[in-house]
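assembly run, all chains below
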Amino acid sequence: MERVTRFGVSLDSELLDRFDKFVKRKGYANRSKAIESIIRDYLIQSEWEMEEKEVAGTITMVYNHEKTDLVDILTDIQHQHRDLVVSSMHVHLDEHNCLEVLATRGKSSDIREIADKLICTKGVKHGKLIITTTGH
Amino acid sequence: MERVTRFGVSLDSELLDRFDKFVKRKGYANRSKAIESIIRDYLIQSEWEMEEKEVAGTITMVYNHEKTDLVDILTDIQHQHRDLVVSSMHVHLDEHNCLEVLATRGKSSDIREIADKLICTKGVKHGKLIITTTGH
Amino acid sequence: MERVTRFGVSLDSELLDRFDKFVKRKGYANRSKAIESIIRDYLIQSEWEMEEKEVAGTITMVYNHEKTDLVDILTDIQHQHRDLVVSSMHVHLDEHNCLEVLATRGKSSDIREIADKLICTKGVKHGKLIITTTGH
Amino acid sequence: MERVTRFGVSLDSELLDRFDKFVKRKGYANRSKAIESIIRDYLIQSEWEMEEKEVAGTITMVYNHEKTDLVDILTDIQHQHRDLVVSSMHVHLDEHNCLEVLATRGKSSDIREIADKLICTKGVKHGKLIITTTGH
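ok done. output:
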């Protein structure tokens, strides 16, 4: 039988307001159910990220390609880690902005590391790593 | 000044154990801080997903291409929504498994819808949508 | 000094008419200059294709994804040769037609072989292999 | 009935030697047959390139990403013509060299123009445009 533990959480009130709207919008029975769902989702990601075995992953970035040296820096980082970066796809969103997504495979901690480097590069507006299974 | 609200949460005990390990591993001060962080991250994604203005997004999937009709079904769904799907990139992970990532742009709710259709297709082992800004 | 050899060529008259228009349109001085130019271009491709050392290449295909089993067959061929096919990119041209381009690397003769297999698959409307240098 | 026209061609002798080896290697009956075959192939490409209706195309390039400003220039050209460039895929061949392939669609003459601009950029080692049908 499933055992349940009850504990207290302190949250910024303004954030809690936004979260309550999210809980309602998504149709969760209550806050606990919503928190359970997103924790479960987070742990899966996090546990994949700790795996020692080979994983696959995608790194999504949006950036302004006109920013001085930005494209060069991002390309350099990828070339240094070309054993991890299989290929990348680039979409020209508008005159200034690019959507770039990298397909990667390798040890999870290594992919995490290159993702952090890329996403933290000054000028990258948004970046996100998805670690996934290689399907085995 | 930041106001804080305290409330109770009920969680499956086994999940809470795993979560506590995650909290420790990531170096959060306590459960509340960790929950605050992941809720914040989740809301950003969720609020982008509700945007009426144009967004960009990537959909990452892993699947076994030998599964009967699976590739056909996934290709059909993408063609029906080719106004949203700019292009896709495909990596052959091994004899059986594919990593596919789609670059999409359009109304957030529309991208959410096609992502759900693709990810829920029988045979898709893991799928994940990232909604991001077009950079404006 | 450059030596020149003169020889006779027999060509289908209708094809020669079209070729003469091409020669004029492209601004070549005469037929010989045009033939020299395209032979030179062809030999470069052909000599790259004979290389024993590693080359890079792209395979461009247009096909109707609704054709029974076609997507499956093309995906199977690629998976069997996944040591050569780095990744592929897919654009949904319209409801029926796909543009797919594969990035490949490996021995030239092996890439030639998989290109022939793919391009000759029934239902592929047009296919073309470009062999290029890896830049060394 | 097929009519045949005979005419004389002057070719650099060294190039003709290489061409004769090509003719033999490919198993053509004679020089005329080989020239007919490559002219036919060239005209198809060339006639597609003159089409006023929409075509699809891929542009394949190999370049050294470390060359000052090169990646910036190539990215700029693509952004200026983002109505033609659907997306691009990038493979890191080694520490220095990149294979990039662009999927394009639009008027053939426009695609030809951007291909020429990209391929002629100083530092691009090899570039090639393939114009193909959109499948209609």
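Chain B has two domains: 13-49, 53-132.

The longest strand of chain B covers residues 54-64.

not gonna interpret more than that til we talk
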